[in-house]
Amino acid sequence: MSWLESLTLNSPSGFWNPIIWLAFLIVFAVIGYIIYSRGNRSYKPNTDQVKPYLSGNEVEDVEEIRVRAGDIYWGFIEALKGYYNVLMRMHTGDIRDYILWYLGLGAIILFILVGGV
Alpha-carbon distance 43 to 30, whole Å? Predict the structure, then answer.
């Protein structure tokens, strides 16, 4: 058994060898460096090149055009507004209340399942 085979971990679904993994890592790092080195050399950070492009229109405040997570779910939340309003009234932020709800609902479900209601 060679030293390379002694480092190989065999399994029914394949094998794993750290030397082969390291060789692939080096090959991919070299390929990545070659791609990086052939990049556009006219790019200059901290200039107008890094400003967002909006069809030639200049944007003063980037925060105005940013899409927030709340904007993504706006339609969903608006459609279920009645449901969320009830939940927001029940929401206290206290973990003890949630544990009490969990135990209470668990007891009701257990009663239904065991009691055969």
Answer: 22
Per-residue CA distances from 92 to 37, 78, 89, 97 (Å): 56, 22, 8, 7
Distances (CA, A) of 22 to 28, 31, 36: 10, 14, 21
CA distance 7 to 2: 9
SS3 26: helix
Are 5 and 19 within 8 A, CB to CB? no
Record the pTM.
0.39
| 38-70 confidence digits (pLDDT tens) | 988 888 888 888 877 778 777 777 777 788 888
CB 7 within 8 A of CB 18: yes
**Whole-number Å distance between alpha carbons of 85 and 65:** 28
Query: What tokens appear for 18 in the block?
Result: 């750290």
- CA atoms of 61 and 54, how far apart (whole Å): 12
